[in-house]
Structures are given as C-alpha cells and as structure tokens.
Amino acid sequence: xxxxxxxxxxxxxxxxxxxxxxxxxxxxxxxxxxxxxxxxxxxxxxxxxxxxxxxxxxxxxxxxxxxxxxxxxxxxxxxxxxxxxxxxxxxxxxxxxxxxxxxxxxxxxxxxxxxxxxxxxxxxxxxxxxxxxxxxxxxxxxxxxxxxxxxxxxxxxxxxxxxxxxxxxxxxxxxxxxxxxxxxxxxxxxxxxxxxxxxxxxxxxxxxxxxxxxxxxxxxxxxxxxxxxxxxxxxxxxxxxxxxxxxxxxxxxxxxxxxxxxxxxxxxxxxxxxxxxxxxxxxxxxxxxxxxxxxxxxxxxxxxxxxxxxxxxxxxxxxxxxxxxxxxxxxxxxxxxxxxxxxxxxxxxxxxxxxxxxxxxxxxxxxxxxxxxxxxxxxxxxxxxxxxxxxxxxxxxxxxxxxxxxxxxxxxxxxxxxxxxxxxxxxxxxxxxxxxxxxxxxxxxxxxxxxxxxxxxxxxxxxxxxxxxxxxxxxxxxxxxxxxxxxxxxxxxxxxxxxxxxxxxxxxxxxxxxxxxxxxxxxxxxxxxxxxxxxxxxxxxxxxxxxxxxxxxxxxxxxxxxxxxxxx
Length: 568
What we know:
The protein is an alpha+beta fold. It is built from 8 helices and 10 strands. Helix 2 packs antiparallel against helix 3.
C-alpha cells in the first residue's frame, strides 16, 4: 500500500496535465474556427470592395476618354460650320469659283481654325466628289481619310493612326449646307499628346497599375500607347479583357493563373476598349494587412482565454482525477470477474457456433445437390429437344441435297441445249458466207453484163437495165447477209454468256451439294454426341438425388445432437 501511493500521485498529476493540455488545444482550435468563420465573409466583402474600386477607376477614366473623343468631334464640326468657307466650297462645286481663288480663301479661314485649336495639327478639305482641294498643317495621306457615310450628319469616331512614326487621331466631318445637303468633307488630324497624358496618368494606380487603350483591326489587338513597362504587346489576360471591352462588355477579369486583376469597359461612340490593370498582390495588400492585424488580435485573445480557462480548470481536474482513479480500481475488480465468466461463455458460444456452421454448410450442400439435380433434369430435357432439332435438320438437309441433284441435272440439260443452239448458229453463219459469196459473184456478173450492154449500144440498153437491177439485188442480198451475221454474232455472245452462267451454276450446285453432305455428316456426329450427353445427364441426376438423400440424413443427425446438448 505504501509503494502504490506515490505511483498513484504521479499518475494523477500526469492525467491532470494531459487534461489541461488537450483542453487548451481544443479551446485554441475552436477559437481559430470561430475566427475563420467570422473573418471569411469580411474578407470576401473587403476583396469585393477593392475590385469595385478598380471598376470605378476604369469607369472614371472611360468618361475622360469619351469627353476627349466628344471634344475632338465637336472641334471637327465647328471647323465645317464656318459659313464663308462652306459658301466658297459650294461655289467651287458649282463652277462659280476657280480652284486657286477657292484655295486662297479657304486656307485663310482654315488656318485660323488650325491656330485656335492646340490639338489640331492638320486639316484637309474635300469637295463633294471626295477629292482633296485644300490642305493645311500635317499632310494627311488619302489612305487615312475617315470619310463619313453619305447619309451621316455628324463626325466619325476618331481613328488612331501612325504617320511618320508619330501617333495621331483622324476625324472626318461632313460639310452640310442649310438644306442639310452634303457639299464636302473635312478630314481633321489631332495630336494625341493630351490623350497620352490621360492614359499614362498612373495616379491612384500604385506601383503596378496602368491604363490601356486599344482597338482591334483585322483580328489584331492594336495598343495605342506602350505599357508601363515599355512593352508593346498585351498579355493573354489583358488581351482577353480588351476584346470583351471592344465587344461592348463591362466587367472584371481575374484569372486563376494571372498575376493581374483587370477591369474593362467599352468607350462609347468608338470601337475602342479601355482597361485598368493592377497586380493582385498590390491590389489586395491593404486587405491582407488588415486581415493579419485582425488575426493577430484574435490569436492573442484566444491564448489569453485559454490561459484563464486552464487556471480555472486546474483544481477541478485534480478532484476529478482522484475520483476517476478510485472508480478505475473498482472497475478493474469487476472486470476480472466478468472476464472469467466471459471466457466460459465464449467456449459455450464457440461450440454452438461450430454446430450452427456445420448445419449451415450441410444445408447449403443439400441446396446445391438439389440445384444440381434440377440442372441435370433441365440438361436432359434440353438434350432431348436438341436431338429432335438435329434429326429434323438431317431430314431437311437430305431433302435439300436431293433437290440440288435435280437442279444440277436440269442445268446440265440446259447447257447441252445451248451447245446445240450454238452449233446451229455456226451452220447458219456458213450458209450466210455462201450467200454472201454468191451475191459477190452475182454483182460481178451484173457488172460484166453492163459492160457488154454498153458495147452493144442501142440494142443492149434493155439488157443494161436488167443488169443494174441484178446488181442492186446483189447489194441488198449482201447487206441482208451482213445484218444476219451481226445478229448471229449477238446470239453467239448471248449463248456463250448463258453457257458461262450454266457452268457457274453447275459449280455452285456442286459446291452446295458438297457442303450439304458435310453438314449432314456433322449433324450425324452431333446426334451421337447429344445421345451421349443425355445419358450422362440422367446418370448425374440419379447420383445427385442419392447424394441429397444422404445429406438429409446427416442434417437430421446433427440437429438431434444439438437438441441433446441444449437439453443437457
């Protein structure tokens, strides 16, 4: 008893430490889960707020670009609306003013417009036939003319062009008279310096943010200005965002493997798209910092709470461990008694299980024997039915073989008759040859007779007529002989074809007869095999029935043994 007391105290302290340790771990884990459940929705909302700020940035910059476009179109319309210049153009179109006078007056007016607008660097005025007549400032090649549609009443959308390695915007504006009739067109060339400042204004975009302005031509994305890092080619994610913007869509693109978050929007009254891109790490950095601070606060509070709970639980766990030790000793004593009784019960249960297992196996064996007997009877029935089918097949094949032999004899007779017909056609051909030769000789005699009639003069004219008729009759005879020969040739070809067919039919009948004989032999062997299978099935069925009866006796004996054990 003295030796067990220190061991009990040591065990009690160790158990108390384990309870306190796992309680602290559980409290910390629960606190962490609660913190995650509370922070996650907040994190999603803050993340969404940062993305909305990026979308607001692209919307604001899109409005600035749209105002720039609207201003460029307004300036172009103001240039076309100068009355005196329009009147000079109308007079030139009607032939009332010479080209030199028209150019001199128009240059003065357009130069004034060029000087008053800082962004305009070139103006080209076209007549009603869209031919350039007046050009000031930077000369605009005809391939870059942005000519409005014939029914257009407003300026075209600006087109971004490159001229002599410099970037410009081209706007075309129709010149309309008071009756709203088209009298010409002004092509205005703008400097993009202000637009470049708008695009490259990186304020509020941090260290990695940038604005991109582009259009798509012939399937190629055309960036108006270089990117922030000096590159002229957009990444796959940026190109995809710009394609959506040019297609008229607004939205946010944040691909899983992309480094940037991109907000995009279309530019109204143009085929441009604008995008604002920022590195994900920089965009979400303020959010991540707030989450780290909040997480640190929650972890600190969880640790403090766990420490307080440990201090409160220490005296409680001490009393609980002592009581559990006493209860454990009582349970061990009862467990020894229970184990002794359990071993005896297990031995008895094992005996019963063995008997039940033997009964179950014998029952399964009895069922299997019955099933084998059923299968044997079924196999016997099937064998008998198969034997009947085989016998019917033997009779049908024998009848078919007789019909094949009759067909072969008939085909042979047809072949003999065709040979006789072929011989007759050869005799007719010989007769035709004789007739043809006779017609030739007759023709020769008629020719000689005609010659003699000519020699006889007036006395031989009647004989000459008769000779001519004889020659005609000989010619008709020769033609008839040739026609008969052609028909005989056709008949001989048909006869040869029929002889070939008859020979092929004879061969096929012979082959079919041979196959039928082989099939008959095979069915005869099958009939012998089926007879043997039927006899074997009957023997198996009888043996399995005897085995089932024996198993019935064994099962009954084991059941009686089990009844005696239970009563004992």
